Each structure stands twice: as structure tokens, then as C-alpha cells.
Model the fold of this input.
Amino acid sequence: MNIVEFLNIESNKKEMISIVGAGGKTTLLYNISKELKRMYKRILLTTTTHIYIPPKDVYTDLFLSNSRETLFKYAEAIKDKDLFIIGDSITKEKKIKGIDISIADEIYKLGIFDFILIEADGSKKKPIKAPAEWEPMIPQMSSMVIGVIGLDSLGKIVVEDSIHRLKEFCNISECRPGDIINGSMIAKLIKHPKGLFKNTPEKAEKIALLNKADNGSLIEVGFEIKRMIEDDSIKIVITSMKNNMYWM
Done:
């Protein structure tokens, strides 16, 4: 089973999928992109924050403009079934500066693309994060929001080196700097209204993806976290994208 099938992404309907959190967002974005390409879909990949330029084998064309009208003209001119990337510009850090969420919503409404895939959150390469006041930047037309958490955060000390947005994480997970990250803290981050799924559109499907379950003990803790959630509106899945293994 591939990741598209595992997440029950329906290939016969148009979707905007936003990915938030930390601990494997970009890898997930690329994996979904590659599998949809194999299905001969017309795909748009973009960001509402910043992402590194993907490897050339991921996409067909990269188009940059800070003009809303120019971006729309580019999107409307696409006829091929393949994967295309748009953004505002390239930053000094060699990242793609993202588009405004309203542009993403308007392009979705044009109906040109089978799938629009959006990295809607930043994490500074940390395994876990809590959103700041202005995060995440999720377009309102998103039909699915996937929140990623790296299970390799378990057992780490609650400090800036381990967590992106330490203050927000402590407030949400009811912990203090110096504590050890455990499953209960992760469950609170998933369930809290200002946590992993903050700013998710009301009708969007919510999937919490507990990634980096790369050994038996982490898989077990992943299932413990799943039992703690008790929220039918959130689907919990456990993955080891490193080993191409998935559990529900």
C-alpha cells in the first residue's frame, strides 16, 4: 500500500491538502506528490510559508511571481498532467517564499488542478512544534489537513533545541522547560484547539500523522497516543516513512 492509499486520498476528486506540524512534512509532501504523478494527475505544489526548492525529479516546472494576476495566468495556461510549483520568490536562504492563502484558494476555485498540495507550516527542522499566534497558514478551501508529529521527540528534554515554539508548546501541553516529552503531551498537542489543528477549516478532514515510528517501542507509544485522543473528528495514523511502513 502506498501513502496515497493509506491516507485514503481519493484520486477521482479534486482536493487541496495542507500539511502542518513538524517531523516529516516535506518528506510527506514529496511522497504524496510522486505517487499522484504516477497516477497522471495535474498537481500544484506550493507553500504559504517557506520551503526549500524540491529536487528536480519531483516537479516539471517552477514558476515564481509576486503578482497575483501573473500567477493566475500561469496556472490557467497549464494543460499537461504533471506536477508544477509556484511561489512568490527565492529567499537568501534559497527557499521558495510562499503565496498568500487567498491566492491558493482562488487557484483551487479555478478547477485546473486535480490536487493542490500545500506546506502550510514551518518547523525549523525540529521534530515537534506548537503554532504561534499567526500559524499555521491554512487556505480555507483545504479539504484535508495532515498534522505531522515526529515520534523521535519522545524522551527529549523540553527545551528550544527539541521544540519549535517552546512557550506555546508548554502552554498547550501543560509542561515546563526541563520536563521530558511524553505521549500525554503529544496527545494534548493534537487535541488542543490552539494545537496541531489550529486554523483548520471546519469541514476539512483532520489526520494526525505520528511519524518516525522506526522501532517497536515507538510504534507502541504511537498506539498509546491514539488511545488517548478519543476524538472521532481526528484520524490518527502511525508511520515510518523512512521504512515505508504505515499503521492505523
The longest strand covers residues 15-21. The longest helix spans residues 25-38. DSSP finds seven helices and 14 strands in the chain.
